[in-house]
What we know:
This protein is an alpha/beta fold. The chain is built from eleven helices and six strands. It is 56% helix and 11% strand. Strands 4-3-2-5-6 form a five-stranded mixed beta sheet, with helices on one face. Strand 5 (270-275) and strand 6 (278-283) form a beta hairpin. Helix 2 crosses helix 3 (39-62). The chain starts with a helix and ends with a helix.
Amino acid sequence: MSKILKILLGILFIVSAILKIADMDKFEIYIYSYHFFSLNISFLVARAAIIAELVLGIGLVSNCFHKLMWWGSVLMLLVYTGLLAYALALGRTDNCHCFGDYLQFNPWQSIIKNGVLLGLFALVYKAKGWRFKHDWLALAGVVVACCVAVFIVSPPDNYTPSYNDNHDLQVELFNEALQDPPLNSLGLQEGKKVVGIFSTGCEYCKLTAQKLSLMQSYYGFPEDDVLYIFMGTEEGVEQFFSTSESTRYPYVIYDDVKRLLKVNNGIFPILVMLEDGHLVHEYGLRNMKEEDIKLFFQEK
């Protein structure tokens, strides 16, 4: 019975890891939202957590290295529970992403879940594992295979060749649009501004907005220095802010859709950093550079 329970716990860990990979963008942002790590390091921490969960799950299913896998699993659950307790202390009620975005648990629910899992692990503590001649070599192979698989399936944005400035914005057309309504009355020609060009129904736009919102709140640059240009409707904008869980910055709905699609070359999202109306940086979701954004507002 204990062996069957161990296998089921291992399968649960593997499923949890796979669901995190499938929802990697949001899991990365969840890790980053605590500001324990920079955005770049959060990419790696998210993958390290998934790899650990995969290795432990495979170890539990295989019934090999019983004590090592048991203690590793219990330690991981205790660390996650500590993080969730911290989330509660901060007043957070958002999804903890333990099963990605597919099965949502708030911190309280996830703490209860972890308590149940710890109880189940107590039941399998005395279960017998098995060893074989080259078991450590096999374990090393599993760890390497999991690392390679995770990084191939979901390579970190900042470690791919495309991690450079975007060149999708048609700069001349954008500069012309800044001179005309509705953008000419928004003060984008003065000081330092961040302008997001988004479609209200674009999931990548929502993720970009969430990342920027976390950076803005953490580094404390003024909310009034951020403006969103939306393609969509007022209803769509309301849904955008609600589902992206991002700060509600000033925005305009650009009615001339054809002109907007020429300005951004039909690409969403685009994040533009302006200084006195001049383009300084241009980003998409995959190449946002936290250090550049931080320095942009720190340098006066």
